[in-house]
Amino acid sequence: MCKRTVIVSGGMLEEDFVLPILEAEETEFIIGVDKGLAFLYEHKIKPDYIVGDFDSVPEEVIDYYRKEANVPIREFNPVKDASDTEIALRMCLGLRRKEIWILGGTGNRLDHFWANVQCLNIALEAGSQAMILDSHNRIRLLNHGIAIRREEAFGKYFSVFPMQFPVEDFCISGAKYPLQNHLLSSGDSLCVSNEFAEGEDEVKISFVFGKVVLMETRD
Prior knowledge:
It is a single chain. The chain is about 25% helix and about 35% strand. It is an alpha/beta fold. Helix 4 runs parallel beside helix 5 (about 110-125). The model has no long low-confidence stretch (mean pLDDT about 90).
């Protein structure tokens, strides 16, 4: 059974989606990040670490963890060079965590969301797999091809975007909209909202060089 680390950040946290993940046997390690700490406090879930500048956490919440809970706290000045989620992710990598799920990484602030997507590259470069999840999206960064089984897909749709550089020889098979030897470049919306072809149980995405953002989505 693959054990995972879950970062609970300060974005959108839906109880029905988040609580089963936090309570699952596969979840081995939980990190509360800034405003996400309030969610853990409300649901009486004890994190293994707490990270953040705590500028958006109710005072009674952080006071509880400082004075009453036996949880390691890594507190940072609000004026810093990295987001709280990035700091938590780098801590995970320092602890040699290989599978990292980021909850609360999406929400109203698109700048925060995009910063979190960029952070996935830090994990990828370190040899770990990190992903951002909410009830409608699973977002990963890939530097190699992947096969997605229908029964393992997160949702009905998937979209692919290049990261950093154009991706040459990009191919999709088993999908409603297949591709062969496509140059996937910035500003290209061709690979948005694809889905499994009728009768196909597997979609294969392949490319020779580069990195792509894979978003699996559902309505």
